[in-house]
Design goal:
It contains no helices and 18 strands. The protein has 419 residues and is mainly beta. The strands form six sheets. The chain has a four-stranded antiparallel sheet with strand order 3-4-5-6, with no helix packed on it. Strands 9-18-11-12 form a four-stranded antiparallel sheet, with no helix packed on it.
């Protein structure tokens, strides 16, 4: 008993309470996890116990292990009842409660807002385009790739024997190979080789293109176009390659044959990562020693042979093949067009970067387009002019990478699940 008031299970709460204006203050007596504190008042200038006005008369607080109870002076229960652990009014859990006291009303803090967090994995397509030789490290989680490998295009034949009544052959396109689901090993470093186009020459046939390589896939460079030499037939024939170079001709060798495509042979036996189509290119066309134009043969392309030269026109280069591996449709590996002597129609380069045929310097033969593997255009005419250079090759890899995404929502909104 304190001054005749019934107090039970105080547990030392009042013994150390601070004093405010001569009144004892008990703070932080709050059951549960919330934050409801309160101020008490009384008439005793010493350790006044907690009283408050109520409809049933003076109410007194008593503390116990389970929470807080209101009682009359004689200890009988008051109509305000108990405030047990977790019960409203004393902040059991979320927001603190409200306690009316003789000196005012005190409100506990508001509860915190909720949250929603989503975590999911989305597969994203990644495309790597290699326009020059490099190294590629296979990412974690990637076990197969789709690929396009195109070799460098061959040069067109030059005019090494001015006035020799001949048109030179167009260069053959670089080999074209594409396929899906080629097995790769995560963490492995792969060497990527992008073949250069063959350089043209005014003193001879020029050069074939270089090979492009990724893993077990090799696409060979295109063959150089044939040309006329003062010494006779040595460079008349187009060279072999991914696609063959077009032929030229002389009076001693008419027609001048084109080179063979798909050399060395690249088959498509099926199975893991096999190219979508057998082979990698086509033959070059033949040149003719028939005037007045003496047309050379067009270089072979990925999807068609080069056209033969005629007495009035140089042969067109063979058409290339379209691929959408990069995300848009692009045509690669067109053969070079052939040249003529002093008149007639010049051969057009095949779709996919093939260079047009020329007649001396007006017009000069065209180069194959870089990174398409197009063959260079053949030349002709009455002056010493080099054939067009072949276009460089390309390697493209496409694969799927799993990308993890986390969305945190701190307010209500709409979320659309990715496709």
């Amino acid at each position: 008993m304190i001054n005749g008031w019934s107090v039970r299970n105080l547990r030392g709460v009042l013994a150390n309470t601070p004093r405010v204006g001569g009144k004892a203050v008990a703070s932080g007596i709050s059951s549960g996890g919330g934050g409801g504190g309160y101020e008490t008042s009384g008439e005793d200038p010493g350790y006044s116990w907690n009283q408050a006005e109520s409809p049933g008369g003076l109410a007194y607080l008593k503390g116990n292990q389970g929470g807080i109870a209101y009682v009359y002076k004689d200890g009988t229960p008051h109509p305000w009842g108990n405030r047990t652990s977790g019960q409203g009014g004393w902040g059991g859990g979320g927001a603190g409660g409200v306690y009316p006291s003789a000196s005012g009303t005190y409100t506990g803090g508001a509860g915190g807002s909720g949250i929603v967090i989503l975590k999911y994995t989305v597969a994203s397509q990644t495309v790597f385009t290699f326009k020059s030789s490099a190294k590629w490290i296979c990412p974690t989680g990637v076990t197969s790739v789709d690929y396009l490998v195109v070799g460098g295009g061959g040069s067109g034949g030059g005019n090494a024997a001015p006035g020799s009544q001949t048109g030179s052959g167009g260069g053959g396109a670089g080999g074209f190979r594409t396929g899906t689901n080629l097995t790769v090993v995560p963490g492995t470093t792969y060497s990527i080789t992008v073949g250069a186009g063959g350089a043209g020459s005014s003193s001879g046939q020029g050069a074939s293109g270089s090979d492009s390589i990724f893993s077990s896939i090799t696409s060979n460079g295109g063959g150089a176009g044939g040309c006329q030499l003062a010494s006779g037939t040595s460079d008349v024939t187009g060279l072999n390659g991914g696609s063959g170079g077009g032929g030229s001709s002389t009076s001693a060798l008419n027609p001048g044959p084109g080179g063979s495509g798909n050399t060395p042979a690249a088959s498509s036996p099926g199975g893991n990562g096999a190219p979508a189509a057998p082979g990698q290119g086509n033959n070059g066309g033949s040149g003719t020693y028939t005037g007045p134009s003496y047309g050379g043969g067009g270089g072979g392309g990925a999807s068609a042979t080069g056209a033969n030269g005629t007495s009035s026109a140089g042969g067109n280069g063979g058409s290339g093949t379209a691929s959408s591996i990069s995300g848009s449709s692009v045509t690669y590996a067109g053969g070079g067009g052939a040249g003529t002597f002093t008149s007639g129609t010049l051969g057009n380069g095949g779709s996919g970067g093939g260079g047009n045929g020329g007649r001396g310097s007006s017009p000069a033969s065209g180069a194959g387009t870089a990174n398409t593997g197009g063959g260079g255009g053949g030349n002709g005419g009455s002056s010493t002019i080099a054939g067009g250079a072949g276009g460089s090759g390309i390697v493209i890899l496409s694969y799927t990478v799993a990308s993890q995404t986390v969305f945190t929502f701190k307010s209500s909104t709409t979320w659309v699940a990715p496709t």
